[in-house]
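Hello,

Our lab assistant flagged a job as stuck in the queue for most of the afternoon. It eventually completed. Since we weren't sure the result was trustworthy after the delay, we are filing this so someone can double-check. Below is the sequence as submitted and the structure that was eventually returned. Let us know if re-running is recommended.
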Amino acid sequence: MLNKLQKGIDEAMTIIGSVLICVMFVVIIANVILRLIPAVGGFSWYMEFSQYANVWAMMLGAAGVACAGTNLRVEVIDALLENWKYGYRFTRIIVDVFELIFYVLVTYSGFLLSTKAKQKVSTMPKFTMGQVYAIFPVAGVLCIIAVLIHLAVTLTTPAEAKALEAASEVKEVEEEVSGK
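-- returned structure --
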């Protein structure tokens, strides 16, 4: 069940991030076209929207990456510990704990930032900077949940299965590098 949840979160965050990047692209292209029409002149807010959409896409993508556990890998350490039955699990737990600390700090500091930024500095219609900065606590909470799910999967999966999976991944990378 946790594996399905893990995969579902990863896919959902990938889809949402992709949609945000596509919308950003459409807004930029539309603005370029509209600038060529003398009476219209384009959007005054396109640049800010593009930056915010990009940040939102990347922060939500971080939750998918955290849930899948595909970040913060040091192949040398995985290769050194591949013969130890609990080596892979040990490194994943350490990484997850540090990720958890990081995302708790992102969530807390993002919450402080978004609650204090109530001024209307944004050129985007009807948005305050606090609403724009809301991505940090939102994505932070999603990332915390994602890391906890990955940690639960790591702790509940038999060590032998994870060690074999890690060893096969290292071997695949070695074969790709050597060109076999």
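-- support follow-up --
The delay was a queue issue, not a problem with the job. The result is valid. The radius of gyration is 21 Å. The mean pLDDT is 82.
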